[in-house]
Amino acid sequence: MPSTPAVLALRAAGVAFTPHFYHYEEHGGTTVSARELGVDEHAVIKTLVMQDEAAKPCIVLMHGDCEVSTKALARIVGVKRIEPCKPEVAERHTGYRVGGTSPFGTRRKMPVYLEQTALDLPGIYINGGSRGFLVEIPPQAVVSLLQPELVTVAIAR
């Protein structure tokens, strides 16, 4: 079990989780992790680091089989524009390598936005802070730990 900041944060909060390891593929994303673990890609929640026009970062937690409507998110947040951070910027904000970004135990505290339909799932698979490592947790654990704003910004891909 890797001792990532995410694992340490989950343990410190008393959150029970099931670790899942898989063979990481560069640029494979949630399609690969879902295939490798034999789970529905909709239950794999990706951690996206985005920023507004003032370069203020935020985290968006989205179903693996969906994209984020950045226009809808910008309206909700009250900014003109939101876009993904460049990988090196995301890594500076989170302390994680892209492909292994977890919303738990980030280097910098950032607002978190969670696609509300994730709460309809009995369990979700979310990055545990390392490439090829997901943790299975109840979606309510994300709510209690991160206090995200629940949003509806998913676009089916």
Question: Would you write up a description of this structure?
Answer:
There is one protein chain. The chain has 157 residues and is α/β, with parallel strands linked by helices. It has a single domain, classed as YbaK/aminoacyl-tRNA synthetase-associated domain (YbaK protein, Alpha-Beta Complex). It has 5 helices and 10 strands. It has helices spanning 5-12, 29-37, 70-77, 87-94, 139-146; strands at residues 18-21, 44-52, 57-63, 66-68, 82-84, 112-115, 124-130, 133-137, 149-151, 154-156. The strands form 2 sheets. Strands 1, 2, 3, 5, 6, 7, 8 and 9 form an 8-stranded mixed β-sheet that branches. Strands 4-10 form a two-stranded antiparallel sheet. The longest helix has 9 residues, at 29-37. It is globular, with a radius of gyration of 14 Å.
Give short descriptive properties of this protein:
about 160 residues, alpha/beta, YbaK protein, two-stranded antiparallel ribbon, about 25% helix, globular
In short:
This protein has helices spanning 5-12, 29-37, 70-77, 87-94, 139-146; strands at residues 18-21, 44-52, 57-63, 66-68, 82-84, 112-115, 124-130, 133-137, 149-151, 154-156. With 157 residues, the protein is α/β, with parallel strands linked by helices. The longest helix is centred in the first third of the chain and has 9 residues, at 29-37.
**Structural class label:** alpha/beta
**Order of SSEs, N→C?**
HEHEEEHEHEEEHEE
N→C terminal distance = 33 Å
Number of helices: 5
Name of the CATH class? Alpha Beta
CATH topology: YbaK protein
Query: On the 0-100 scale, what is the average pLDDT?
Result: 96
Shape: globular
Oligomeric description of these chains: single chain
How much of the sequence lies in strands comes to 25-35%
